[in-house]
Design brief:
12% strand, Csn1/TTC4_wheel, coiled coil, TPR repeat, two-stranded parallel sheet, repeat, TPR_rpt
Length: 387
Amino acid sequence: MASQPPAHEEDSMDSFLDKFKDQKYKGGFSEATWEEEFDKIPMFMKKAPSEIDPEKNPDLACLQSLLFEGKSPEEQAKIYKDEGNDYFKEKEYKKAVVIYTEGLRKQCSDRDLNAILHTNRAAAEFYLGNYHSALNDAIAARKQKQEHLKAIVRGALCHLELKNFTEAIMWCDEGLRIDSKEKKLLETRTKADRLRRTEQRDVRKARVKAKQEQTQREALLQAIKDRNIKLFQQACSGGEEDALDGIAELSLDGLSSGNATGAKVYLDENNNLHWPVLFLYPEYRLTDFISAFHESSRFIDHLVMMFAEDQPPWDVERKYHPNELELYFEDEERAELYLVNAEKTLLEVLQHKRYFVKAGIPAFLVLVKNSPFCVQYLADKKVHRTG
């Protein structure tokens, strides 16, 4: 028969337990944060932090110090290498980079191990898309071990991604001298060679195209020169009236078009110029754009096409008739207007001594002759007739 504890001991135990009935244990986990608290305990951690802060993780820091206690730099570097490899296998490339870096900071004397750490970090950086950093690691690995094949493969792949096709081929050739059957190097060299030939072909095409465009450009400038047409240049508009008289003042930039359509003056196969032309209607603050105005076309011909058959919807008073319209161009330097004879061709007007083509687009004002708006608009302006 089992012996029973003395009555006084039972009373003592009951008294001890009674103390906790009204006192909550203060060291326990809360229901809301117990998972987070568990994750701070090394035994229950799901993942170790990439960097250990002794103040935040004192237990883990203590374990780490025990892990490395008494170990040489080489042994510590190898531990970091293995840990980095584990992260790499889990595709935790950022953490792998951090761990491999810690291994390299040990500055161990094992050149082979250092080459592996650099190569492995290069692989992690590569998968993060940091090709320059990965290439630097591949180069560093080869400084530790010149014929480290994995470093050569990684460096070749980095050069390929960076579009350094010639360098990629050179790295592949160096690796193939070590192992002529290395599959990755053979594939990379084939791809780099194909891309290099494509790039060289594209460069040749671009040079030929640029040469053709330059030839066309020069022919266009010569055609403008032959016609005594002047281009307005902002840099030369400092008050000298004759600054733009010579063709020497023309520049290629003067032919660039600032209009939304991208239309520019061009020279056709018959040596005729076609200009983008802008008609401005100040009364309504509207514009019309003609993308290719033949230099031999008369203004009246365009006005007939624009207004004789279908009146524009904004002309509610139906007063814009071809024979009732006047055209002007503005001499911005002198703040003067010149009346254009609509029977004249575009070329004849552009050859006027006071006409300067601005931004590659001739522009003209269109007004209804003797209309109240026209009279008021011209009242404070000096107007010349072009004849």
